[in-house]
Amino acid sequence: MFIETETTPNPASLKFLPGKQVMTAGTREFASPEAAEASPLAEAIFDTGEVVNVFFGGDFVSVTAAPGASWGSLKSQVVAILLDHFVSEAPLFKSGTAGDISVPADEEMAVEESAEDADVIAQINELLETRVRPAVAGDGGDIAYRGFKDGVVYLTLQGACSGCPSSSATLKHGIEGLLKHYVPEVVEVRAA
After folding, report:
1. Cα(101)–Cα(35) distance, rounded to whole angstroms?
2. d(CA 50, CA 14)
3. pTM for this prediction
4. Segment 124-152, tens digit of pLDDT
5. What element of type H or E holds 51?
6. Per the CB 3.0–4.6 Å rule, which of 19, 98, 123, 158 could disulfide with 142?
């Protein structure tokens, strides 16, 4: 088995491609060692002591190194962990934790939406799913919709994209421009 790596726009993050499916549906982000307890793989990556974020996509794992950590030694450690996991066909999540189930909680929404905006919200979500999410996944991350109110779309970048120095430019120039072009009701995009 060979695991490829790709750089991401975030210099602290690398994208690891095991050549196998990682998540069967959706994505999962682990922003702390405590959150990673649901996944033996994420837990092992955090156990290196040099990681601040692990993100599972459909066919990749993005890892964000802690400030001051060197990818020189960390990269080989992460590759070894991933090889062990995928060669042994170990489960991605601990049984009985429901760790692989991602249900958005009500408090994750940044604003209370109006029922009269349902058509606009559907258009926004369609564009995010078909145009934005694939591009963001290519950079080792994902995007989460957090609401629409008074012409403002609230989004959260995840994975390698969450701490990326160019994340505000991605939101303001890339995603905002796309949404404003196709959905005239959108006047701004903000990070949630």
Report:
1. 13
2. 13
3. 0.75
4. 999 999 988 888 888 888 888 999 999 99
5. strand 51-56
6. 158
